[in-house]
Specification:
The protein has 415 residues and is mainly alpha-helical. Helix content is 67%, strand content 3%. The chain folds into two domains: 2-114, no CATH class; 117-414, no CATH class. It is a multi-pass membrane protein.
Length: 415
């Protein structure tokens, strides 16, 4: 076996050389993962190209994960060069060119058709899993916070569970450990810090107000994204994007004004979470220009581990073991041993739903992901109202609906 690192858009031949390269990341990056799976099925490669989610979002050109070539298999087709190229995101055509020509590889007449039905089923499974895990997490998270109102420890347990799961997966080789360097961790540090702040702020919010209200306010995140990008980064957006902010801001404002159990700490927690996650995305785009590329499951695992390192000392300083011990005894008296299992479930499902979310970005377009994220928030709001019997006024529901509609319009206008 021979190991070679390939760049996006390069031509792979039987000798593993690079006779030509043609790259246009914004157009050609996304389909590379599908292509690598096709090559795997044909036996040409023994490891899949792991496309970094962040690379696609930024349109940047970064090295792919190591691709191990089966030289003996390639020698059998010495006269047939293989071209790694790609069509637009979620393209319906495969892009393996038997003659080594990028143009031929992109010719629909010479490329086999991807099973569109199977792709749609796969996306549907991703969405169903993502939404279900998120709903379950929010339910158990709120149960824990109702009985044990210590959001800093609850947030720490969520990150600790995910870190433990991934460290164990790497140790037993269930998942291949990422090959990262110091530059990667340096680039990830501000992302992890923003992620930590956003995670804790959201948990603080849920400890003070209804789950539905927290998620209604969090639907305003696109407004924060546009405002920060416009006034701090100098980016410009088309008029429809700005117009889509009107229903988002108006709907959230209406929902906040008519919330029966309004709490300023809960409201500010959700707002801070929005702002933190916007900066997390900005730092992600900047950090991806340095260090090695890590995608999907492993990227979120590294993010969880570093966030846990940041969060743990603050959790001990702000709440501390004495408060936790007293609160735990009270929770045991009120709900019994169920509190233990609720804490386990909320921690595990927090990691799982985020893991599926990051993995899905490797398979679907950003527009599809944005729409799915909007519908996920709807499912959480509706399910939490039903399960916790949250009182809600018609005008409050209208405000929530307007905000969610604005989020959907934003996702359309942004594209």
């Amino acid at each position: 076996m021979a190991s070679t690192k390939f760049m996006i858009g390069e031509t792979v031949t039987s000798s593993g050389s690079r006779p030509t390269s043609w790259r246009s990341p914004k157009q050609f990056v996304p389909q590379l993962t599908l292509l690598s799976k096709s090559l795997l099925r044909n036996g040409y490669f023994s490891a899949q190209v792991d496309l970094c989610r962040k690379s696609f979002l930024s349109g940047g050109l970064v090295p792919c994960k190591r691709l191990v070539c089966d030289v003996r298999r390639l020698r059998e087709s010495r006269k047939k060069g293989l071209t790694i190229c790609a069509n637009a995101y979620e393209a319906e055509k495969s892009d393996v060119s038997p003659d080594g020509s990028p143009h031929a590889a992109m010719n629909p007449a010479s490329a086999p058709t991807v099973n569109e039905g199977a792709r749609r089923v796969k996306i549907g499974i991703y969405f169903a899993t993502w939404w279900s895990l998120n709903v379950i997490f929010n339910i158990y998270n709120k149960k824990v916070l109702n009985a044990f109102p210590y959001p800093w420890l609850t947030s720490t347990l969520s990150l600790a569970a995910g870190s433990a799961i991934m460290l164990a997966s790497w140790a037993i080789r269930l998942v291949e450990a990422p090959d990262v360097d110091l530059d990667f961790w340096k680039g990830l540090a501000p992302v992890a810090l923003a992620h930590t702040i956003g995670h804790v702020a959201a948990t603080v919010s849920m400890s003070k107000v209804a789950v539905s209200f927290t998620h209604i306010i969090k639907s305003a995140e696109p407004a924060f994204s546009v405002l920060v990008s416009r006034f701090l980064l100098g980016e410009h957006f088309p008029l429809p994007v700005y117009l889509s902010l009107i229903p988002i801001i108006g709907g959230c404002g209406l929902a906040a004004l008519t919330e029966l159990n309004f709490d300023m700490t809960g409201f500010m927690g959700a707002m801070i979470s929005n702002l933190a996650f916007v900066f997390r995305n900005i730092f992600s785009k900047k950090g991806m220009k340095t260090g090695k590329s890590v995608g999907g499951m492993n990227y979120y695992a590294c993010l969880s581990i570093l966030s846990l390192v940041f969060l743990t000392p603050f959790a001990f300083a702000i709440e501390g073991p004495k408060m936790w011990a007293a609160g735990w005894q009270t929770a045991i008296q009120n709900v019994g041993p169920n509190i233990f299992w609720w804490a386990v479930f909320q921690s595990v499902f927090y990691h799982l739903y985020n893991q599926v979310s990051y993995m899905s970005l490797d398979e679907i377009s950003p527009l599809t992901f944005s729409i799915g994220n909007t519908m996920k928030r709807v499912s959480v709001i509706v399910s939490s109202i039903i399960i916790f019997h949250t009182p809600i006024q018609p005008i409050n529901a209208i405000g929530a609906a307007i905000a969610i509609l604005g989020t959907f319009l934003y996702s359309q206008a942004k594209q």
